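hey m, so remember when u said the tokens were messed up on ur end? i reran from scratch. heres the input so u can diff it against urs
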Amino acid sequence: MSKRTAFISGNFNVVHPGHLRLFRYAREKADRLVIGVFSDALGGDQIFISEALRLDALRNNILVDEVILIDDSLETTLERLKPNVVIKGHEYEGKENPEERVIKALGGELIFNSGESAFSSADLIQREFRGNTDSRVHLPSEYLARRGIVPSDLVERVQKVSGVRLIVVGDLIIDEYVTCEPVGISREEPTVVVTPIDTTRFVGGAGIVAAHAASLGAKVTFISLAGNDEPAGFARSSLEALGVDVKIVESDELRTLVKTRFRSQGRNLLRVNNSVSIDARDEHLEQLASEFKKTVAQADAIVFSDFDMGCLPSEVVGQILASLDGERPILAADSQARLGLGSLRKFAGVDLVTPTEMEARSAVRDETSGLAALAHRLRSDLGVPNVLLTLGKEGVLISGDLAQLSGQWPTDLLPALNQSPVDVAGAGDCMLVVTTLALATGASIWEASLLGSVAAAVQVGRVGNLPISADEIISRLS
């Protein structure tokens, strides 16, 4: 019985997780996967990596059985190969596809599918079995070469952060870690019993974004809402000790948000939030917007750190953005949409967003497109030039500003730089603020994203939201 052949074509300047999802899906539909790579001549100005390197990268992929160079036409290649199925991402559905006529004439089928997000589970498990327990940060040499980045230049970028004036506005959260000693299983019911032995608190939410920036040397103003309570006092004193100009609007009618994690033997057992919203009233939000307007004139960059707890509703964000006159500072936003409500849209027009894949799909209501197409659509729909699509252990997909790329390919992948994370809480906040600060120093999105990834890799190597220092980043760049 002859084997079924699946065929996928493309430029493949960089093979990213979206491609791998498609490859895995193709292996489910056929016994053999052939990848067609457009030649340098045929790809024209869409090609940024030589065909020899692109072919070599795919030939080393265990999912691929054969790689061929397309140097005449796609239709001619299909007629010669005679595959049983051609697979393309969902973003091509409903468009003109030159493969359709040929594959139908051959009795095959054209399928649109972008694969499943769980594609890499087997790869990650195998990586663990291979004993990769090194918690050091590994710089991605291929990415450095591809983007012409020199680590010593990145060191200079980190050093220039000390001159950046930054405003951070968003939800203040206190992260509390209760370390417990396991006792056993309850005799009355199948419940784990533990005894608390220590409690440690950190400033979290938008507060840790401000703390990271101040620890790196930036001149930081932090604006938020909180209760007139002890957790808010802890946050204020902690941030002021780092040199942050704290402008928290406090009220007896509000309650500072506290997230408590119960941990035992290096693992989180349970997380308890003392509230799901700060329940801010109009007068509180007006005070917050007023504090922002008083300080915005001198800002080089602004970070909106929105945990969807009520500090940054759409109307307040609209007022803040409308108040920006003249030469605008760098604007960055991260919005963690609860219940998939797509709150990222209120930050349309900023310079950088850093959503997870789920948050991006929610924002543009797209559950099927491949990752590169998803990031491109998010940029287009929101009018945001730079998107960092954070993918956890799969790394981060970068979709850059087309207007400033000068012929470079606009999408790239940074792998996760720490494969032995201890505590992933706060990684996104660290990446957001370091990337933003780097952009404010004049770094390209490729340099800034790498610095943000290095910072996130340092952050996940320890428990708790500790402010990152310039020395910690620089030591990983050496």
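this time it looks ok to me. The domain at 141-477 is CATH 3.40.1190.20 (UDP-N-acetylmuramoyl-L-alanine:D-glutamate ligase). if urs says something different then somethings off w ur setup not the seq
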